[in-house]
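[C-ALPHA CELLS]
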Amino acid sequence: MLGKFGGLVLTLAVNTAAMAVGLLLVMIYVKHTLEGSDAAVLVAVYFILLKLALIVALALLFSCFTTPLLAILFTAGLYIVGLYVQELRNLPVQVMSPAMSAFTKWLSYVLPNFENYNVMAMAAHGRAVPGALILQNTLYTAVYCTIVLTAAAAVFSRRNLK
C-alpha cells in the first residue's frame, strides 16, 4: 500500500514540478525577472502537491473496499465536502440542536480540510506565505495520510482476494 502511494505521489510530484517550471518560465517571459515575492507561487504549487497527496491517500482507501467507479465518486465527494469544511464549522448554532451542533463540529474535524491549502490569493498578490502555515499544512498532510493509509492497510488486510 505504501509503495503504491509513494509511486503515485512521486508521479504527481514530477508532473507538478514540470508544471511549476512552465509557470516560472511564463513568469520570466512576462515580467523578465523573478522577484522574492514570486516564492509564494512556489509555495502554492507545493500546497497543490500536498492536496494531491491527500487525495491519493483517500482514493487508495476507497479502492480497498469498493469498485473503481464508487472509489472515484467517494473521493470526489470528499474533496468537494473538504473544500467547505470551514463553512460547516461556521454554521449558526442557534438553528441547530446541541447534538447536531456537536456532530457538525466533530465532522468538520474528521473530514479533510482542503481549504487550508488555498493560498492562491496570497500568491497572486505577492504576499509571503507564513512559514508556520507551510509547516502546519505539511504536518497535517503527513498525519492525515498516515491515518488514511493505515485504515486502507487494515481494510485491505481483511479483504478476501479469492
The chain has one domain: 2-157. The CA atoms of residues 87 and 108 lie 9 Å apart.
